[in-house]
Amino acid sequence: MSAECEPPGTARTRRWIAEAVETIEADFNRSADTHLLRVPLPAFPHITLYLKDESTHPTGSLKHRLARSLFLYGLCSGRIGPHTTVVEASSGSTAVSEAYFAQLLGLPFVAVMPRATSAEKVVQITRYGGRCHFVETPCAVYAEAEQLAAALDGHYMDQFTFAERATDWRGNNNIAESIFAQMAREVHPIPAWVVVGAGTGGTSATIGRFIRYRRLATRLCLADPEASVFHRHLADRSVRLADGRSSIIEGIGRGRCEPSFLPDLIDRAEAVPDAASLAAARVLSERLGRSCGGSTGTNLWAAARIIADMSARGETGSVVTLLCDSGERYRSTHLDPRWLAERDLVLDPYRAAVDAFFDRGLCPAAALSV
Predict the structure, then answer these.
(1) Which of 90, 151, 243, 343 is 20 to 30 Å from 170 by CA-CA measure?
(2) What is the pLDDT of residue 173?
(3) Residue partners of 215: CB distance under 8 A and separation at least 6
(4) Residue 35, SS3?
């Protein structure tokens, strides 16, 4: 796509935007919906667990949905034009997906990311024609991305502000509508719980709003890394910054309470140790026969605690959570024994606890002390 540099209201620019929207919609039309996988729970015969497998998107993660929505939002709001350089602050996965859509539209893209971002994500961003701009600390990405966009006369996408408003939460094939449509023929079609992590907060906002809009009894659980601020903010709304520690689980958990995170939609929060997330991801990968990233492990650990609580109360029902991305994105980090050893991460006790959940019906937190 090309056009001369003109004001956004000109006929030529409007035609380019119309073509850009059509290009994104055509790409969506070529893509199938993601699968909803049932996970066997031999120790819980009256409770079913499902994983929405977002790793099968064209760019390999849940963030594909967000990137598409953010591009459409920027185009239709007049903020992205035929020569706009798109800039994003990201821990990796959103940047991968946005690089894909920028390439689709022929636009330059720059990802501002922490230097510790996995090498596999960096390779994917550059494969789609994007450029990586690194900062030393995660908290520096916001200001750096805003300044860089201004210097390039570009558009700072700002997923952390616009995630909750860019997606149509009433429907339009968002993730919530897809989950509940796929659950329609299951034994327990209305989940007792949906468990999600939060990076921007956009996914939890979309699902939480959809639940209320459809007047469903489903409750929403936040699965949050221990170092993240979100679960602290839920307990005390005056807390908006974490204590300086950072999580190694890319894509979820933040050091500041992001504008797109809507705490009033969350019914329960589970703080999950990083080692528990990585161990749970490994156990799930082995049991499913497909690779799972660390944020999926965070989701599983929180879902396991909910399922154990349901069983203890004699409840039946279904629980849905997300397989966010593939563990193959973390070969150089989470899956590297030397990388784990350098950070003193010991997974064996947590792996045993997750196995005890599946095989013996033990709450994983309780199994750690057995």
Answers:
(1) 90
(2) 73
(3) none
(4) coil
Place of tokens 């509940």: 180
Domain 36-56+168-367 falls under CATH 3.40.50.1100: yes
| Cα R_g (the chain), whole angstroms | 20
Pick the CATH number of 62-164 from 3.30.470.20, 3.30.870.10, 3.40.50.1100, 1.10.150.120: 3.40.50.1100
Which of these, 169, 170, 164, 184, lies nearest to 36 by C-alpha position? Answer: 184
Query: What residues contact 9, with CB distance under 8 A and at least 6 apart?
Result: none
pLDDT band of residue 364 (cuts 50, 70, 90) is very high
Could you report the per-residue pLDDT of 306-360, keeping only the tens digit for each? 999 999 999 999 999 999 999 999 999 999 999 999 999 999 999 999 999 999 9
For residues 330 and 83, give the distance between their C-alpha atoms in angstroms, rounded to a whole number.
Answer: 33
pLDDT tens for 81-111 read 999 999 999 988 999 999 999 999 999 999 9
Equal fold, 36-56+168-367 vs 62-164: yes
The domains of the chain are located at 36-56+168-367, 62-164
**How confident is the model over 308-320, as pLDDT tens digits?**
999 999 999 999 9
- For residue 43, count CB atoms less than 10 angstroms from its CB and return exposed for 0-12, middle for 13-18, buried for 19 or more: middle
Rounded to 5 degrees, φ, ψ at 140 are -85, -10
Helices (H), the chain: 11-29, 63-76, 93-105, 119-127, 141-151, 159-166, 175-182, 202-213, 230-235, 274-288, 294-312, 337-342, 348-360, 364-367
For every residue of 294-317, DSSP letters joined together read: HHHHHHHHHHHHHHHHHHHTT--E
Q: Give the Cα separation of 27 and 315 in Å (integer).
A: 42
For residue 77, what are the contacts with CB-CB under 8 A and spacing of at least 6? none
Which ranges of 198-328 would DSSP assign to H, the alpha helix?
A: 202-213, 230-235, 274-288, 294-312
CA angle 116, 295, 28 (to 5 degrees): 95
Distance CA 266, CA 66 (A): 20
Amino acid code (one letter) for 364: P
